[in-house]
Every structure is written in C-alpha cells, then in structure tokens.
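=== Structure Prediction Worksheet ===
Name of assembly: unnamed complex
Input type: mixed (protein and possibly other molecules)
Chain count: three
Listed entries:
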Amino acid sequence: MRTDPIVNIRESLIFERSTPGKTAYSLPPLDVPAADPRSALEPALLRDEIDDFPEVSEFDIVRHFTRLSTWNYHIDIGMYPLGSCTMKYNPKLNEKLWRIPGISACHPLQDDSLAQGNLQIQFELQQILREITGMAGVSLQPAAGAHGELTGILMARAYHNSRNQRRKFVLIPDSAHGTNPASAAIAGYQVRSIPSNADGRVDFDKFREALHDDVACLMLTNPNTLGIFERRIREIADLLHEKDALLYMDGANFNALMGYTRPGEMGVDVMHLNLHKTFSTPHGGGGPGAGPVAVSRRLEPFLPVPLAAKKQDGTYCLDFNRPQSIGRVRAFMGNFGMHARALGYILSCGGAGLKEISETAVLNANYLRHRLQGLLDLPYRQDSFHEVVFSDKLQTKKGVKTLDLAKRLMDFGFHPPTIYFPLIVPGALMIEPTESEGLQELDAFVEAMQSILREAEENPEIVVTAPHTTKLRRLDETRAARQTVLRWRRAPEQDKTPREAARAGD
Amino acid sequence: MFRYLSLTEQEKQRMLQAMGRGSTDELFAAIPENIRLKRNLDIPGPLSETEVLRFFKELAARNFHADDNAYFLGAGAYHHFVPVVIDALISRAEFFTAYTPYQPEVAQGTLQSIFEFQTLICQLTGLDVANASLYDGSTALAEALLMAERTRGRRHFVLSSLVHPQYRAVVSTYTRNMEWKIDLLARTSQGLTHLDAAASLMTDSTAALVVQYPNFLGGIEDLSRAAALARRHGAMLVVAVAEPIALGLLQSPGALGADICVGEAQALGIPLSYGGPYAGFFSTRDDLKRHMPGRIVGQTVDADGQRGFVLTLATREQHIRREKATSNICTNEGLCALMSSIFMCTLGKDGMKELAKQNFSKAHYAADQLERRGNKIVYGRRFFNEFVVTAGAPVARINARLAAEGIVGGYDLSRDYPEMANQMLVCVTEQNTRQEIDRFVQILSAAETAA
Amino acid sequence: METTSPANLYYTKDHEWLRLDGDTGTVGITDHAQHQLGDVVFVELPEVGDTFKAGESFGSLESVKAVSEVYCPASGEVVQVNEKLKESPEWVNSEPYGSGWMIRIRLYAPEERQHLLSAADYAILVQQEER
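=== Predicted Assembly ===
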C-alpha cells in the first residue's frame, strides 16, 4: 500500500521569484496631507528602501505558499503519531470561532469595560482548568509548554524566597524532556538527574537519597515519557513536602488522565498544560502553542500578573493587585487565540467527553502496543497509557535503525513517531496515536509497520535509503551545520537591474 | 461517543478482546485508588456547533473591536492592514495542522517558509542572521539579554526606561534570580533615552545597552550614538522594535550599529488578537549565530543534490544540551511567523515604504490638528506613528468619553509613568481615516476645554 | 569498529590523546572517539594563554546532534590552538592524529603522564567499551 508522492511541483525561494516593479498590496489613497519625514528626522535616520525585499504579485504569493504547503505532511491528511506531542484533530469550529472579529480584533490594552467578552473567555478557561486539574489557581500567560515550566519554576523559587530559603537543586528524572533541565537552569537552579528504575519509573530509593534540604523541587512528567504512570507520585509529593520542597508536574501527557485523576489529588504544587496538545489547538508548523500553569494553594500568591477575575457585580477585570506575584512572563495576556480555541473545544466535549477522550487515547495506544509487540522490541513492559515506546534492537542486527524505519513510514503515508527520545531508550520509537484515530487507521498503521519490518528482514536496502516518495530524499544535516547558510542572499555577481541602479542613484 | 472521536462501542470491545482485556478501566489500573477522581468533571457541555458559536458571538458582542471601532491605541500592539491572502494561506491545513519540522523530507513547506522568514527579518533589521521566531517581543528581549550575558560574560545592563514597560517587566521576571545589575536610563526633555547618563553608567563590565526603536513614547532614538557608546566599552547594543512598520521608513538597526535586534512581529500582518498569539523576531551578527536562542533553519542538499532545508545548529538547544542550552525554548511561533512573511512579501519593497509613509503622515496630521486646538504635543515631531499629547483631564476620563462615541482612545501613560498624569500616548495608523482622526481630535480637545 | 591508536601517544579514559615533545604537549581526540561522535561540525577551542588542570574541560566538539566536552590530559597553559579547525572541523574525523589536533600546551608537570594510558591499555579500554 504505497502512496503516490504528493504534489511535487518545484518552487524557488520567494526572493528568486522577485521581479522589480511587481506588487501585491493595496492601500487606500492617503486622505491627509503627505508629511515629509525629512522635516522631522535627520537624513541619516531614513532608509531608502529595504534592500532585496521581494517584489511579487498577489497571485505569485498565493502560488508560492500554496506550493510550499503541498510539501508538508499534516494531521488532516493522515496519522501523525508523534509521541509526547499529542497530534490530535484540530476542530474546524475552533478556527471559526476565533475568526469572529469581536473576539480576535481586540487590542490587549483596551479598557476592561470594552473587553468583557474576552475577559470572560479567560476567566472561564481559568476556572475550567482548575476543575480539570484539581489545582487552586491558573494563569494563562505562558506562551508554550517550556514557558510554563519556566513560570512554574520561578514560582517555586519565589515560594522558597518568601520563606527565606535559598535552595540550590532541582531534581529531574533522566527520562525527562530537555526543556525541564533547561528551564530549571534559567531559573538559576542546578540540576540533579534521578535515574529510572527497571520499571521505567523514577527510582524511588535514588530519589530519597537525592532529597535533602537544598532541594527546591522535583520535576516529574506523569505519565512519564515512556507512557508509564508514576504510581508513587502521592508518596513522592508527601516526602517532598516533608522537606518543604515542591512537586512540579510536566503536564505534556495530560491527554492520558482527564476525568480519571487530577494533579491536585496527587499532591502536585505546580504544573503546566499544553493547550496545543491536550486541548486541540493547532500546532501551526511549530507554534503558537500555549502553556497555562496551575498551582496549589501555597503557590497561588506567586502566579504571574495579571489574572482574569470576576468582580462582585458580575463584571470581569484584569487583576494586577497581587503583591507576591513573580511578575509578568510575557507582555499582555498570553496567547489568547489559543485560550479561545481551547475553551471552544472543552465546551464541545463537556466533562464526560474529556474523559472519553483520555479513555480512547489510552485504548488506542495499548491496541498499537498489542499489535506491534513482538515485531518491535518493547524495553519497558509496564502498562502503557497514551503512548508506547519501542526500540530498534531487533532491527539493528540487519543494519536497520530507528531513523530508517521512520523515513520508510513516510513512503507508506504516515508521519513517523517521535524518534530517539526518551534518551534512556537507545533507538527509541515513541508512538502516540491520540484518540482521534479510528480502528481502520490504527490497523493501517500496523500493516505499514509490518510491511516495513518485513522489508527490514528481506530487503533492508529499500528501508535504509528511504524515503523514496517524498519531494526530497534524506537531507544532509552535516553540511547544513558545517557550511551554515541561514538566509538567502543575492548572488554577488548578480548586478542590479537598471531600475534598481536608477533608484540607487537617486 | 461524540463527534471528535472515531471508535464505536463495538470497536472498543473488539480491541479490548484482541488485547485480552475486559474493560478500558483495566488500562488505568496503575492509578492508585487514593488519587482517583470519583466523580464526573464539573464542566458544561457537550455543546453542539451552533451552541458554541452562539456562545462566542454573544461574548464578542460585549467587546469593542477594530473591525467596528476606531482605535488610537498602540503601545506595543498595532491595528494595521492585514491582506486577505494571509488568512487564506495560513488556513491551509498543510500549514496549521503540521508540527515542528522534525522530519525535513515531509516538512519542506514549513522549513522553506521559515528560511524565507529568517531572510526577511535580516533584510528588515539590517543584520546577518535571524532565528525562526520566539514567543513575542517581550520574551525575545529577555532572550537577547541572556545571550549578551552569555557571550560577553558580563552581568551589568543599561536599559532605557523608554523600552516598553511590559517588556521590562518580563526581563525583570526572567532575571530576578540572577546576580545581575540593571541600571535604568531616564528620559530627556525630548522624550528620548538619556544617552549622556548611559555614558557615565557604562563600564567595561557592561554586557549591553538596551534601547527601543521607536521608543515606547514614539520617539526615534539616536542608535548611532548608542552603538558608539556600547562599542567603547565592548558591550552590545540591543535594539527592541515593537512597531516594525517603522522600519519601512527608518534606517535599519543593523545599519546603525545594533548587535542584536529583537522585536514584535504583530504589526506585520498578525491581527490584534487581544495580545496573542504574536511572534518575536531575533536577528544578530553572523559571528554570534551559535549563541542565538531558538530554532534555526539552514539550507542544505538531499541525497540527490537537490536544495532543501533542515533545522540546524541544534546543539545549542535544550533537547541536546539540556541544562546547558542557550535557552529553554522548544517551539517557535511558526504560524505567526508565516503570517508576517506573507505580509512582508505582499507589501514588498514599495509597499513597506508606502505603508510607513502613510502612518507617518496620518500621525503627524493628527498631532498638527491636536496642537492647533491647543493640546500640547509633549516631545515635538521626532516620531513615527505614536506621540504623547497632553490632555486637559485624566486620560481614563477622556477615554470613557471617546468610548461613548465608539472610539478607543490612546494609552494612559500614568499607568507606567506616574509623573505623566493627563498624558496620552496616541497611535495613528493607515487604518485611521481623516474623518476618524478629526472626530478624535474634536472629542479630545473638547475634554480640554471642559476641564 | 577497527580503529587505530598510535603507539607513541598517551591516552585518557575520555578518549583524548597527548603527544609529548619536551615540555610541550599536543592534544586531540582519538580515532575511536571521532567514530563515536560522528561528523564533527563545529569545534570550540580555548584561547592562547588559558590554563587548565588535568581532567578539566578545555573545549567542545559538536556533531549534528551531540556535543562532547574535551578534557585536558595534563595541566598546562595553552600555547597554540588549531585555528584551522574553525574552517575545517571535518579534519577531526579524517585525521584525528594529524591535522585534526586541537591545542598545544606547555605542561606544568610532565610527570602527570604517569596517570595516562599507553596505546595498548587504551586499546583494551576501547575493546571493553565496544562489548
């Protein structure tokens, strides 16, 4: 079942399409007297034109970007089982509601009285995320998951500071995402890595050994990056709290838990959610996302400002009066467009729907695990939640590696899973189907994997040279890093056109 | 089962059977009893499409918005022309439902468009290299300071008080736990950064001098002088740009000596969006590229020698270097960067210039009209599309009057600068018609007489 | 993997080599190390005049998806760095014992070489690692 290549029309860079004199914009005629910038500003402050900016027609632009778009794999065309990224369906309704002008065309600094609708969206989303997580307070300000992590760690720091404690260390399991240690480092902490045990969970004894009075918090992903639930999380929280240390939960994998359990009951002090994972906002080719943080009562005073609040008279406002707040982590109120979409999604699902989402996501992952087990090495055999991690151990004997399997999946019409992560599994393939996929899609994925694994035995060459049907074959990443070309530049021998030469002579 | 799910009960049973499981509850057995949620989530819904849209339309009706109302409010977010091709193109699922281009063979569309974005930002800011975007202007500025500290190994910063107050607030949150010294520069009577004071504050342990261009009050800073000051002490000049449309008219920060230019791409084709999502841009000199935060796309070839693009210089990033990474940032603001790319291509060389001139002309027209009616333009005419005007009454009161006429007035500067009572930061863009401007001037100056 | 380790050099457990010439030592990484690292794309080197203790990191090597610190085999002051690696990092892969050298140091205590491995001992270490 090989798919044919998607449209592969060649397309140059927009700069190479540029032809002097072409234009794509339209502005109304100036209805006030033209003011001369030279009257207000010295000539050295003025620029003539932006060198090498493209000159193209509107249709050139439409063609250009439409052609580029055809070279992308995306969820609407097929399964995108990128582990820990929760590539679920992005409902069209979310896009529709966001484009209501009264929602998206508001200025962030307009008076609260002129933005009651948007403030209500923020307030209600804060309330709903509190209910889903069982936490005491929520800030929507962080723009992404890693931004939420940083916000969370800064709050942990502020908490200890408020108790006149200068703690030095953040504990992070070795299976964690790289943003965890990087966020802790930016907040000024040293990182202590905690090994995983044979079950793939945080090694409880090693954790106890590492826990002393200098520890500010532990950052735990739950379910962890192996898709395994950290079942001793409550005990871990209690031990941390005995030392007045805090528990941070990375909520990247929250799609596994909705309606089943809540971080509030686990003893979590601070966590982030990824609206672009669990709550269906589109990934946009790498952002925008949104990474709200939720906190326990003890951290609530430290939430960033402002928060959306409801006044006694039933109107909404931005609350800046939070003296212990860590301050702002972003200008304005965060990625509001994602907040509106997430609220639309949650209301579309309802409480019962959210639980069914987690149920289905976990069922789908376990079904894939069941069907692929035996064909691929499964390094950790504990129950999987929303994702399952295999390795290429069985295939490397034939010289076929995870990267090859990933590239070959493209030829079968699937996006590859997350590969080589978590780092504790050599040659990892991390598969997260999400609840959006139906049984037919799951079976088709299994069949594709079966075919590829058969090829790996019988005809490894076709696998190690894959992909064969994409616009480009494997790209030379070494060359990209050695001979860095990070932007287009006009070729030096290319002379200016007569028109440009004339302009330059002005 | 509801519309976003694709398994029937029968299918679930078949799957469970195949797996030898009795129920889906068994799959959650690892969750200990004492932390299970034993009730239903208390969340309204499920709502139908019609109900969801009705709900949001009702909310929308309670907002002022730039499609219906005249705005004279800028201060870091600008109401500009957004060509319709932008939404048409970014609404292609190929762009908005894809993720970070981890697998370049099936993400060339995203990768090439980011490469073009990087190039456009370099051209706009006059610098050598740019990244794939950051969260927004404020966080881009914080990242720029972290980079200056990293490359210079110095922890003293001299920051203009005319950098956007919210950008400064973010910098302060990010750096509070570091042993940094940040000196704030006052403003001159011309509404510009007090560079003479900078000269006396800067030493050979200063990492960077930081200014905004145009500054928060609309004034256009002398970047050449700032650059010379920075160079004298081996410090960097970091320039923040909140209103990049100005760069259609003003000399680029790179040409005037900036080492790092960061800014907010919102004005370049991204709707006001009540504050986000926007995109931060970040450009710098070639010799500093390995210290840049964020994702970067580079050009290369495939196995057949065809030109293609990949994420590169990844060893700077968190997934490889973990706690030693240049930043904790993981994603960029891909779709917003794409919006601003399409915007810059649509406007092109001529359009950027024309758009900037219209902004300049309209804002200066508004200033002239206000002055003619007796309102003082506090810092003269060295501005692009924003300026400070003295009102005869508290700004909040005037804005309420304007709102009654369907107009969103300017920014109340006393919110951030307590000594600036009755002073309004007015923004006029190409979106404001002469009629709107005249009406605004009339109401504002009537407030003057009434007071 | 068949890799070579010249007999006249001293080696560290972290896979650096040291060539002694009076009180000056030349430092690079071994053939085995460059194989493990893959294509080197960037070399970060110290400056002349910097001083390092034995076992201290003096720079790093970047491949496409990994960064490795490089450790000084013996204490000393850097007297020369291989500037050409900035343009040609691939030499670390192609000629790890030749043009891929990284720094020259003036040794403070040449007797520190006693703590280093001989070529034969290093070969055993590599064998163990590969097992």
